[in-house]
Write a structure and sequence with these properties.
seven-stranded mixed sheet, 16 helices
């Protein structure tokens, strides 16, 4: 039996660990923090459970790309709930519910891109320009921009097809939050003889022939094939001896995307009715969290892109609450308490440089340059996670499968069939 060491317990790392453990590897997942899951983590404040980066997913219908990954891993047995309404985008005070792709004739040509996770030259085009040529209102069609990397003018058709297209086809929420997904994958790894360890901060990677020696801050060591779920540049800096300069320079010129500012709101009892669908106002996502037995919301999350350090977070929080109240009447008076997170918070918990929410920017027209391959110049060291391909649950899951296909030297389709 071969050993595999996974650095980081985000979705990408846990998925790689689950796949490799099913393929006979003895897997050890090393998490530097006290809680597994990365962006799947949940936390509690004021008796309310809040999710950090997981709110809803798309592509879970039979035949969809995420379903094809989750189903053989047993993840479709989790309590998924289909969202009853499409995304709502508010433009100039007017609500627009995004149509399904089947209702837009131009989207027929987009479907092949949405179901092909491979990067193609056609997919490197500008999504904004493509929508304009199709005669569609970009303010509406790109209104769910919180799910996409910014700026909007540089979103590629590859990103739009694999994220926006599938959300327009329908979305699902996980009752109990994203931590359930992380725990299910960790349980799968443990059931096959693996281990998932917390408080194991990796401080060094030393190549040894076709394997690597991984050293943690507590001086514990682990040896085996290595999959790193942390940022590629951070991975390169852990290596001794240093990775070849040309590879390091390539990573250093890549740009990380913006961070996200989040307001986590606890609501007064029985003040606002719950809505299960996503609402976007000027790019800000309004997400209803928990609800009570009578259908009243217990919490609301507000998420918006920020391009740099946040100054007065309380003032920014009130600004977000005021903007959300233009669509959610009575919100300002319904707030019992609130908490915030900034890109600095994100960086502390995930280690992503600058607190970038979606990692390396995969932007038009530089898509081919921005895509980082799973295989590194170091034998036995592979990468996974949102920094390689696309972000989001679908993007990270697809990249994890791609990483495993490189390790196992099998194509992705046949790998799925044999899980």
């Amino acid at each position: 039996m071969s050993d595999a060491v996974v650095i980081g317990s985000g979705l990408g790392g846990l998925l790689c660990g689950a796949v490799l453990s099913r393929k006979g590897f003895r897997v050890t997942v090393l998490e530097g923090g006290s809680q597994i899951g990365g962006c799947l983590q949940s936390f509690s404040r004021g008796g309310i459970r809040f999710d950090t980066g997981f709110h809803s997913v798309a592509g879970l219908a039979p035949g969809d790309p995420l379903f094809s990954i989750f189903e053989p891993l047993g993840l479709m047995d989790l309590p998924w709930e289909k969202v009853s309404s499409p995304d709502e985008v508010v433009v100039d005070g007017r609500s627009h519910f995004l149509p399904s792709p089947a209702e837009i004739p131009a989207f027929a040509s987009l479907k092949p891109l949405a179901y092909n996770m491979d990067f193609t030259p056609e997919a490197s085009r500008s999504a904004w320009a493509w929508l304009r040529r199709a005669g569609l209102d970009t303010r509406v069609m790109l209104g769910s921009s919180l799910r996409l990397q910014s700026p909007l003018s540089r979103i590629s058709l590859h990103e739009y097809a694999h994220i926006a297209y599938h959300f327009m086809n329908g979305s699902w929420r996980l009752q109990g939050g994203g931590a359930m997904l992380a725990e299910a994958l960790a349980a799968d790894i443990r059931a096959r003889g693996g281990q998932v360890l917390t408080r194991k901060q990796v401080v060094g990677i030393t190549p040894e022939a076709s394997a690597c020696l991984v050293t943690c801050s507590d001086r514990s060591t682990f040896r085996g094939l290595v999959v790193s779920d942390i940022h590629p540049l951070l991975t390169a800096r852990l290596l001794t001896p240093r990775i070849r300069p040309s590879y390091l320079r390539r990573l250093q010129v890549l740009t990380n995307g913006d961070g996200i500012f989040t307001v986590y709101i606890k609501l007064k009892d029985r003040t606002l009715r719950y809505a299960d669908h996503a609402i976007f106002i000027n790019g800000m996502l309004v997400h209803f969290g928990e609800r009570d037995a009578e259908g009243y919301a217990r919490s609301v999350d507000l998420l918006t892109h920020v391009g740099g350090p946040v100054g007065d977070r309380i003032a920014l929080a009130h600004s977000c609450i005021h903007l959300a109240s233009t669509r959610i009447g009575g919100l300002e008076n319904a707030v019992a308490d609130f908490w915030t997170s900034t890109p600095s918070t994100w960086e502390r918990y995930t280690g992503t440089p600058g607190g970038s929410a979606y990692g390396i920017l995969k932007e038009y027209p530089r898509m081919s340059v921005c895509m980082v391959p799973p295989r590194t110049p170091v034998p036995g060291l592979f990468l996974t996670g949102q920094n390689l391909g696309l972000h989001g649950v679908l993007g990270v899951s697809s990249t994890a499968l791609l990483t495993c296909s490189h390790i196992l030297q099998a194509d992705m389709a046949s790998l799925l069939k044999k899980l």
